[in-house]
Specification:
The structure holds 2 protein chains of 2 kinds. In chain A, 31% of the residues lie in helices and 20% in strands. By secondary structure, chain A is of the alpha/beta class. Chain A has a single domain, classed as Thiolase/Chalcone synthase (Peroxisomal Thiolase, Chain A, domain 1), CATH 3.40.47. In chain A, helix 9 links the parallel strand 11 and strand 12 (315-317). Chain B is 34% helix and 21% strand. Chain B has an 8-stranded mixed β-sheet with strand order 3-2-4-5-1-6-8-7, sandwiched between helices. Chain B is globular, with a radius of gyration of 18 Å. Classes of the chains: A alpha/beta, B alpha+beta. At the A-B interface, helix 4, helix 5, strand 6, helix 6 and helix 7 of A face helix 4, helix 5, helix 6, strand 3 and helix 7 of B. Strand 6 (157-160) of chain A pairs antiparallel with strand 3 of chain B.
């Protein structure tokens, strides 16, 4: 087991998703049980499902200086940066430490693949159309390249692309860089956008629900896909009341590419690892933001894990009924939701879910609850058996 | 404040490219020998179960081949090793086919092809094949991918106090993407890194990120074909230094004009 780590301060954070732009829009939606899922109007070929779409991106190209990065994913990144003054906070941080002392660690699974899809639809004499003929639009690191250009960081910059755990794992990468003295601060970003490969890909795997997803419901029928941009700034020290990253755990299922380990072995290892780094036990945890995709298998495995390892005083919910499963952005989006819940003292509802599957323990909160949260976890599990659990502490309740 | 230097030892090296079956063959080629039969299109990837070997996508095969070699040389059990898989472009063959299918009829997209399209497919297959429950990461960083992988692996070595497997690979581009995602041949290289040297250590590396631009060294003419692969192009300066067993400082591109300085010594 790993040893305890020194907590890091999360000095700025924000998210943009189908719930709106920024923390206020997210808190309002979560506190009024208002979800962002709607009938699919994204695909050219009809596909019966609900999606969590961010409105307006089609008519918001990047500024002309960034034309070589202009795609839906980077547009969402740019829009997300503007929320809650995050861009200013990031630039101020770079100014304070020096550009080479700030890392940029991004997580995405779709990256700019939507631009490649579009290019193949609109080939000109067998070539990508001129408007899309830019290397930075057809690489897994497109998001990192764009943000590096937009922010001006000169520290290490990399993309973590481990499917649906991508932007949870970036917290672990950044913590290690800061702990080892490679940088003094890290800008974290997770951005994934709707595209046909994920909508039709998950559909081909028979994992997409026809209606808005219902995590942990006895009648759940699969995921709803969403899109989001989330950002966080990690530093050694911040304001006394700033939330803290206190732990993380990463593990592999070693079971199957797209099906979780039946006993959730990898998920349990990630949880134990995160708690060990945080120096807490499961009974200290007030809230768990579950991966809770609403697939039959994921929720079955995760519900058993909660029942086996946590007391009833630990509250748990999945917020994917609000935002959809935002895939590579889910880690940081749900980290931001967890931090908002902590800041405002509530447990978000498991929206759309009416009758909990009997496998669920008493921890599952179907309805929203008012409750102080001192210690919280957020789970993210992805294809390839990639698991990550993050642990946060409330800076106001230490 | 100058950056902390990270020191790691290379306990094992694996390498595969057409005509270069392993690290010993690479040392011969780097010293001027001609590559072996360039027509050998696929490595054996003996670490994968036979069924997976037959149907695995090309990145899974070449990454597993290099990874298996490196673990064998290091005499370490892959099940115990956290791993970092780094690739500039990921599976360009699947991306090409998937985009083609989506343009024609998205309902025809194959579920297997879709789950194989994730950037962490090679690390996923590797951890399944080796029963590895440790942390597995898949990264990408354009021209800085190899440097980012090396730095991330070294950080994990020190932060977690255990050896780490680094695997870097790219396959050839095809279809319309080949014009923008440049890669002309497959190449994979793997290191097992540890904090402390052992009697098996192949080299000691001191790593430091700097915002100084790297010096672009033209590869020896005989190796120019290799550098059509982005992983090979990024890793070659360090690999040549390792093969020559000289103490030398190498600068590897780390993105946005920055570099990873690698002081290599035998």
């Amino acid at each position: 087991m790993p040893t305890r780590i020194a907590p890091l301060s999360i000095t700025a954070f924000t998210a943009t998703s189908a719930l709106g732009d920024g923390r206020g829009a997210h808190a309002d939606a979560l506190r009024s049980d208002r979800g962002g899922l709607a009938a699919n109007d994204f695909t050219r070929v009809p596909l019966t499902c609900a999606i969590g779409r961010v409105a307006g991106l089609e008519s918001q190209p990047l500024p002309a200086t960034f034309a070589g990065y202009d795609c839906r994913n980077n547009r969402l990144a740019w829009r997300g940066l503007a929320a809650d003054g995050f861009l200013d906070a990031a630039r101020e941080c770079i100014e304070r430490y020096g550009a080479d002392r700030v890392a940029l660690v991004v997580g995405t699974s779709t990256s700019s693949i939507g631009a490649s899809e579009e290019g193949y639809r609109d080939l000109e004499d067998g070539r990508l159309p001129a408007r899309l003929r830019y290397p930075a639009l057809h690489t897994p690191h497109s998001l990192g390249l764009f943000l590096e250009a937009a922010l001006g960081t000169r520290g290490p910059c990399l993309t973590v692309a481990t499917a649906c755990s991508s932007s949870a794992k970036i917290f672990a990468k950044a913590e290690r860089m800061i702990r080892q003295g490679v940088v003094d601060a890290a800008i974290l970003a997770g951005v994934d956008t709707l595209c046909e490969s994920v909508l039709f890909g998950f559909n081909a795997l028979e994992l997409v629900a026809p209606e808005p997803c219902r995590p942990f419901d006895a009648a759940r029928a699969g995921i709803s896909i969403g899109e989001a941009a989330g950002f966080a700034l990690l530093e050694r020290a911040g304001a006394d009341d700033a939330p803290r990253l206190i732990g993380y755990g990463e593990s592999s299922d070693a079971h199957h590419m797209s099906t979780p380990h039946p006993q959730g072995l990898g998920a349990r290892l990630a949880l134990a690892d995160a708690l060990a780094r945080a120096g807490f036990s499961a009974s200290d945890v007030d809230y768990v933001n579950l991966h809770g995709t609403a697939t039959i298998k994921n929720d079955e495995v995760e519900a058993a894990l909660m029942t086996d390892l946590f007391p009833a005083t630990t509250r748990a919910s999945s917020t994917k009924g609000f935002t959809g499963h935002t895939l590579g952005a889910a880690g940081i989006l749900e980290a931001v939701i967890t931090l908002l819940a902590m800041e405002q003292g509530f447990v978000p509802a498991t929206l759309n879910s009416r009758i909990a599957d009997p496998i669920c323990g008493p921890q599952l909160a179907l309805a929203r609850e008012e409750r102080a949260i001192r210690i919280a976890l957020s789970n993210s599990f992805g294809f390839g058996g990639s698991n990550c659990t993050l642990a946060f502490a409330n800076g106001r309740l230490q | 404040m100058s950056m902390q230097t990270l020191a790691v030892s290379i306990e094992g090296i694996g390498l595969w490219a057409p005509g270069i079956a392993d690290w010993a063959a690479a040392e011969r080629v780097f010293a001027g020998a001609l590559p072996d039969d360039m027509a050998v299109a696929k490595p054996s990837a003996a670490t994968l179960p036979p069924a997976e070997r037959r149907r695995a996508p090309e990145p899974v095969l070449i990454a597993s081949e290099a990874a298996g070699q490196a673990c064998a040389m290091a005499e370490l059990d892959p099940a115990e090793l956290a791993c970092v898989f780094a690739s500039t472009h990921g599976d360009l063959a699947i991306t090409d086919t998937m985009c083609e299918t989506l343009a024609a009829d998205p309902r025809e997209l194959s579920p297997i092809r879709f789950h194989n399209s994730v950037h962490n497919a090679p690390s996923g297959y590797w951890t399944v094949a080796t029963h590895c429950h440790a942390a597995a990461t898949a990264i990408s960083a354009a021209d800085g991918t190899f440097a980012a992988g090396l730095l991330e692996a070294a950080l994990q070595v020190h932060a977690e106090g255990a050896p780490v497997l680094l695997v870097a690979y790219d396959i050839a581009a095809r279809g319309p993407l080949a014009e923008v995602a440049l890669s002309t041949s497959p190449f994979a290289v793997a290191f097992v890194l540890s904090a402390k040297p052992s009697e098996r250590s192949r080299a000691r590396l001191q790593l430091r990120h700097t915002n100084a631009t790297y010096d672009l060294h033209e590869p020896p003419a005989a190796l120019a074909a290799l550098t059509g692969n982005p992983t090979a192009a990024q890793a070659l300066p360090l690999l040549l230094a390792l093969a020559e067993k000289q103490s030398v400082d190498v600068m590897i591109p780390a993105g946005a004009g920055t570099s990873l300085i690698v002081e290599a010594s035998p």
